[in-house]
From TrEMBL:
Gene3D superfamilies: N-(1-d-carboxylethyl)-l-norvaline Dehydrogenase, domain 2, NAD(P)-binding Rossmann-like Domain. GO terms for molecular function: NAD+ binding; oxidoreductase activity, acting on the CH-OH group of donors, NAD or NADP as acceptor. Belongs to the 3-hydroxyacyl-CoA dehydrogenase family. It comes from Bacillus aquiflavi. It holds the Pfam family 3HCDH_N. NAD(+) binds at G9, S10, G11, T12, M13, G14, D32, E92, K97, S119, N143, K273. SUPFAM superfamilies: 6-phosphogluconate dehydrogenase C-terminal domain-like, NAD(P)-binding Rossmann-fold domains. This is 3-hydroxyacyl-CoA dehydrogenase. The record marks H140 as: Important for catalytic activity. Pathway: Lipid metabolism; butanoate metabolism. Signal peptide: none annotated.
Length: 284
């Protein structure tokens, strides 16, 4: 197997996956329907490369080599024609993922493997959008991708052992540890993370404490690297709400979204990406 990776979606997760792939030695094409989104992704990755050199994580030579392995494309059909592995990182919306997987199934080589970077959705259902369900798996990356060491790999009903081993190898090239779990709504990490984050919104709604105090209590008292509000601002309040709605539908009342979270999303307070979420970043 060659090492040609295509990443679909140049948002926060897509650009992070492309970055670690290129640093690890993979030839990476990052695809998005919007040229401006690709330009934004390239600018952000350049910034991360500079920080890596400054902190001694990478040499200038390594950075230049990684940049040469990166390319950008708005044409999904052309991009996947020589792919060995395609990782989809589009929004957690069934119709969008369905269209992506139906398209790549037609145009990618028969030897190509498919992965979805989902935190909650069913890899079995996503695999059903293709004629190669045995070659489909979920790769749940964590944000920020270049710092977080884990990929949670989730087998669908028909995922082959060979697919698991191939994707494990690629994950290792990216410098990541892996856990392999069987499909169940929310997998392992999202079930815990969404519960903690949702409970934090209920506490804020009830006046238990300020966001700063709740975050500090969780970080120092439970040894979490980030507080729940810091984390939700990073991943996006809209993304968290979508995940909770899905888990509420599949697993019941304990995942019912806090009304305050829904209110923040309706107000457009979606987190760092728009400058304001639970915290205000416009003056920072």
């Amino acid at each position: 197997m060659r090492n040609n990776l295509v990443v679909i979606g140049s948002g926060t997760m897509g650009r992070g996956i492309a970055y670690v792939g290129a640093v690890g030695g993979l030839h990476v094409k990052i695809v998005d329907i919007k040229k401006e989104a690709l330009e934004s992704a390239e600018a952000e990755m350049t910034h991360v490369f500079k920080k890596a050199v400054k902190r001694g994580k990478l040499s200038s030579t390594q950075v230049e080599a990684a940049k040469r392995r990166l390319s950008y494309d708005v044409d999904l059909v052309e991009a996947v024609k020589t792919a060995d592995l395609v990782i989809e990182a589009v929004p957690e919306i069934r119709e969008i993922k369905k269209k992506v997987f139906e398209t790549i199934d037609i145009h990618a080589p028969e030897s190509c493997y498919f992965a979805t970077n989902t935190s909650t959705m069913s890899p079995t259902e996503i695999a059903s959008f293709t004629k190669r369900p045995e070659k489909v798996i979920a790769m749940h990356f964590f944000n920020p991708v270049h710092k977080m060491p884990l990929i949670e790999m989730i087998r669908g009903l028909e995922t082959a052992d060979e697919t698991v081993e191939i994707v494990k190898r690629i994950s290792g090239i990216m410098g990541k540890e892996t856990v392999v779990v069987n499909e169940f709504p929310g997998f392992v990490t999202s079930r815990i993370s969404t519960l903690v984050g949702n409970e934090a919104f209920y506490m804020l709604q009830e006046g238990v404490g300020t966001p700063e105090e709740i975050d500090k209590a969780i970080k120092l008292g439970l040894n979490f690297p980030m507080g729940p509000f810091e984390l939700v601002d990073l991943v996006g309040l809209d993304a968290r709400l979508n995940n909770l709605k899905y888990l509420h539908e599949k697993l019941g009342e304990k995942y019912r979204p806090a009304p305050l979270l829904e209110q923040y999303v309706k107000a457009g307070r979606l987190g760092r990406k728009v400058g304001k979420g639970v915290y205000d970043y416009t003056e920072k």
